[in-house]
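Sharing in case it's useful to others searching the archive later.

Someone asked me privately for the predicted structure of Glucosamine-6-phosphate deaminase, so I'm posting the question and my answer publicly. Question first, with the sequence:
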Amino acid sequence: MKLIEVQNYDEMSKLAAEIIIEQVQTKTNSVLGLATGGTPVGMYQYLMKDFTQNKTSYEQVITLNLDEYIGLEKDNPQSYSYFMKEQLFNHINIPENQTYLPSAKSVHDEEAGRNYEKLIETVGGIDMQILGIGENGHIGFNEPGTSFSSTTGIVKLADSTREANARYFTKMEDVPTHAISMGISTIMKSRQIVLLVSGVKKAPILNQLFQTDVNENLPASILKKHPDVTVIADQEALSILKEKKGSVFS
Ligand SMILES: O=P(O)(O)OC[C@H]1O[C@](O)(CO)[C@@H](O)[C@@H]1O
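And my answer, the predicted structure tokens:
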């Protein structure tokens, strides 16, 4: 994993957007894997700004999101489908039928994961996957303990994930208990991965990520086995890791 150290959230967001813009300009029909959550919001704002100023075109781009809650309609403001429209799709020239999120009718909808896997294959695989990391080390909604060979399917959210995401809901009971998520092996098939890490809350997990071996209790640790991963981390996220100089900073 290549680590790029930046000052703050804004620098992380700008750099991530620049990497995506370069990808889209170099390969106009790029397939982008996108993430939700608080981390990529600033990056999406930079993409919108660039679209307004420089007219980078997304006409031929295809996007595939990592995950979606189960039980929320697409027009529910807490759904990731709604999030992506609000944060990005409504503001750039990407055709709606080229933006995909996984979607499952219920926690028993096993077909949904298989269909998403087929879709990813049909579009030729993901060129560049953007990831955030959960405070417990999850990528997508693959919680600690998930098999590294997992493919897209229904996942149960860890209590800590529901608590972390409760900030977007009126009350804890409204936070869905399950989601559909790209699997870990699915994410690992992406040709290039960019992991964004910002804020002091992510400092412990970022430290663990660099200090521990690849193991299923820390889903993001599998990224160490991928040939092309760039981690962009800000000073707050790096605060614990940098105290332990000598490991990655020597
Ligand atoms: O960016 P946040 O809100 O800290 O969330 C971390 C990660 O957890 C998820 O919300 C779970 O999908 C990701 O989208 C995100 O990258």
